[in-house]
Amino acid sequence: MQEIHQIIVPVDFSQITAQLVDYSIYMAENLSATIHFVHVAEINQGHDMLLGDSVFGDIKEKIIADAEERMANLLEDNGERCKGCTGKVVIGDTVDAIIDHAKNKKADLIIISTHGTKGVEKILLGSVTERVIKKAPCPTLSFNPYK
């Protein structure tokens, strides 16, 4: 069985992020692994035509700056328990960016949360977790914060 040294944990800074972070740190401690948190800022490039380049550029910069601040706070708040943890904000399609990050870090495991979408919402929006599991280059553990 392959040992687990590198764990990718996608975070969206929603209300369940703290639970996912706690669980991931617990798993990393037990496996003596390093966590690499990743947040994907999915910025639709089509908005620049509607808003104008300068307005869209300002919005994009604000979104990225906000995400980077949140990531820095996440790392600082958990630094004592999560030695060696890293965090990165990337831009792109959420699923593809998570998969690319996992490949770049040579991940042995991805721990990703579910949001419990059901019915029409899941059909229309799809499930990021489901698509990551299908495309992942390594084993994936889905974390259900509602159980």
Structure description:
- This protein is an alpha/beta fold and 147 residues long.
- It has one domain (6-143): HUPs (Rossmann fold, 3-Layer(aba) Sandwich), CATH 3.40.50.
- It is 49% helix and 19% strand.
- The chain is built from six helices and five strands.
- It has helices at 17-31, 47-51, 53-78, 94-104, 119-125, 128-135; strands spanning 6-10, 34-41, 86-91, 109-113, 140-143.
- A five-stranded parallel beta sheet has the order 3-2-1-4-5, with helices on both faces.
- Helix 4 (94-104) runs parallel beside helix 6 (128-135).
- The mean pLDDT is 87.
Please describe the structure with a list of short key phrases separated by commas or semicolons.
147 residues, Rossmann fold, alpha/beta, 5-stranded parallel beta sheet
Which structural class is indicated by helix and strand composition? alpha/beta
The name CATH uses for the topology is Rossmann fold
Whole-number total of structural domains: 1
Strand order of the largest sheet: 3-2-1-4-5
Query: DSSP helix count?
Result: 6
